[in-house]
Design goal:
This protein is mainly alpha-helical. It contains 4 helices and 2 strands; from the N terminus they run H-H-H-E-E-H. The chain has one domain. Helices cover about 70% and strands about 10% of the residues. It has a two-stranded antiparallel sheet with strand order 1-2. A hairpin with a 2-residue loop joins strand 1 and strand 2. Helix 2 packs antiparallel against helix 3 and helix 3 packs antiparallel against helix 4. The chain starts with 6 loop residues before the first helix and ends in a 7-residue tail after the last helix.
Length: about 160
């Protein structure tokens, strides 16, 4: 069926498939956020602005996922994947600051230090950035090979 379509119809079908895939990914991520937010809502009582921090992060992340999916098959996909990884690192650094919080519950005051978790999360973001850079290099390598034609194998 797909082989019998005209080139214009194949392009439209490809765009529709990308849009459907992006919509499904965005919906799944939003549903996961919605379910997890029910469990994290009591935490916003102790950490002011926690719910807004999470909502902003999820909104921008879903937008970047949708844009990256819509631009799949092009160099822009890799650009948005790198932007997604950099966003994670920057947003964690900006929202959590030094990683030390003071919580007060009644007459008790606690100092919470989450610097280790902050460092781990930022390192995972940097691993995502490295993955995106490697995928970009691979994409450009494949495009260069196609432009040159088949390169003879060396024996």
């Amino acid at each position: 069926m797909a082989n019998q379509l005209k080139p214009n119809q194949k392009g439209k079908l490809s765009v529709l498939q990308k849009a459907l895939k992006a919509t499904i990914k965005g919906t799944i991520l939003y549903v996961a956020y919605f379910v997890l937010s029910q469990f994290l809502s009591p935490l916003s009582e102790y950490v002011p602005g926690f719910q807004q921090i999470i909502e902003t992060f999820v909104t921008v992340y879903i937008i970047l996922i949708i844009i990256a999916e819509l631009t799949s098959g092009s160099i822009l996909q890799h650009f948005f994947n790198a932007a997604k990884a950099l966003f994670i690192v920057a947003y964690i650094a900006a929202s959590l600051g030094t990683g030390t919080f003071n919580l007060t519950m009644g007459t008790l005051s606690f100092a919470v230090n989450i610097q280790v978790f902050l460092i781990i999360a930022m390192m995972l973001g940097l691993v995502g950035l490295a993955k995106s850079v490697m995928q970009t290099i691979n994409y450009l390598n494949e495009k260069a090979e196609l432009a040159l034609g088949e390169v003879p194998a060396y024996t």
